[in-house]
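User: quick one, fold this
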Amino acid sequence: MMSLLEPGMYVRHPNQPDWGLGQVQSNIGGKVTANFEHVGKQVIDTQVVVLIPVFDPSGS
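Assistant:
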């Protein structure tokens, strides 16, 4: 599933809801770089953390 995350997609970190919405910058070898609203750029190992895809970032 995490291999389906592509640049431009939005995600949330399941253990860090205070990070806010993140936008995927890259996904290389299971390492996803995402730019989160409140903490900036983070590299997430998707073998350790399963990011939650957000299909409607506006919430409507």
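User: anything notable?
Assistant: DSSP finds no helices and five strands in the chain.
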